[in-house]
Amino acid sequence: MPPADDIETRLATVERDVVELREQLAVTRSDAAASRMLAAGADHDVSEVRAELRAHTQSLNALRETQLEQSRKIDEQGREMREGFAKLATGMAQITALLTNHSGSAEPT
């Protein structure tokens, strides 16, 4: 049988260890709670960033559609201008031909 002072020493050591473990448990619980709060905050921040990213993506897509529409209109106006200038050139050529023919027939022979 171990001596009584050895049991008392061992019991005091165990009690000291239990106190330390309880202190460590309290710190660990506090750290875990803080970690959960940080994780919740990070999750909230990520959600906000994702929402903003979606909004920016939608804005960029709308801008792209507007640019495509404007490009189609500019192309259409360019075609109309070229057609108009072609008609104008044809008309001017006809007028020139008529004037040339008219001035040529009006000369005395």
Could you explain the architecture of this structure?
The chain has 109 residues and is an all-alpha fold. It has a domain of 75 residues. The chain is built from 1 helix and no strands. The longest helix is centred in the middle third of the chain and has 103 residues. The termini are far apart. 0% of the residues are buried.
Q: Summary?
A:
0% of the residues are buried. The protein is mainly alpha-helical.
Layout: helices, strands, pairs:
Elements (H helix, E strand, L loop, with lengths): L3 H103 L3
How many DSSP H or I helices? Answer: 1
Structural class estimated from helices and strands: mainly alpha
β-strand amount: under 5%
First CA to last CA: what distance?
157 Å
Report the helical percentage.
over 70%
Mean pLDDT: 93
Radius of gyration: 46 Å
Q: How do the helices and strands follow one another from N- to C-terminus?
A: H
Number of β-strand runs? 0
Largest sheet: none
Shape: rod-shaped
Unreliable residue stretches: none
